[in-house]
Amino acid sequence: MLSFFFILICNWLELLPTELNHDVHLLPAPTADTNLTYALAAVTMVSVWTYGIRQKGVKGYFKHFTEPFPVLLPLNILEELIKPITLALRLFGNIFAGGIMLALIGLIPLYAMWAPNILWKAFDAVIGVIQAFIFALLTVLYFAMAGAGHEEHELHEEYEEEQREKKAAEKAGEAAPVPAH
Q1: Which residues pair with 25 in a beta bridge?
Q2: Is there a domain that residue 41 lies in?
Q3: Residue range of the domain that includes 65
């Protein structure tokens, strides 16, 4: 929740009218810089890995890299290493593109600039909310995947086995002749 609001405020800083002239913008969006987005992604992924190890133990956490098949180990490791990069670049790219569009709108003559500027800033505000939500949602999903075990799958298999036994017992009860009194 805190990361959502932090990213949202960082995204919205660029919407404040703080331009001294066309060359100097005092408050560009911090998330339009790769340094912040990579730092956020790195902290998120280290936290996810720590959580996963605490939930499953070291052996249990690293065992999930070989599941469902040990031959997928390199791909699973690659996936874990790419997650922070994609998390960072997704946020950076979308917010940076919004800043570029604001700069391009600034090239429109003054008498016609007000309408596209207002519309784009409103659109950019919505994009800021969506990007903050996506970052927070992916963070929650990464935590859920890191802490999830196969207990749910095993419980489902046990339930199905019980249901099969129950149906078999019912069929056996129907097939048996009823004793006469």
Answers
A1: 19
A2: yes
A3: 2-149
Specify the 3-state DSSP secondary structure of 141: helix
pTM: 0.73
- The sign of the CA dihedral 56, 58, 62, 63 is negative
Where residue 21 falls (left for φ over 0; alpha for ψ -120 to 50; beta otherwise) is beta
pLDDT value of residue 176 = 56
Split at pLDDT 50, 70, 90, the class of 181 is: low
Residue 157: count other Cβ atoms within 10 Å of its Cβ. 11
Tokens of 173: 């009860």
The contacts of residue 38 (CB under 8 Å, 6+ apart) are: 84, 88
Are 30 and 13 in contact by the 8 Å Cβ rule? The answer is: yes
State the Cα–Cα distance between residues 11 and 99, nearest whole angstrom: 10
Sign of the torsion formed by the C-alpha atoms of 139, 145, 146 and 148: positive
Number of domains in the chain: 1
Q: What is the pLDDT of residue 160?
A: 75
Residue 158 resides in a domain:
no
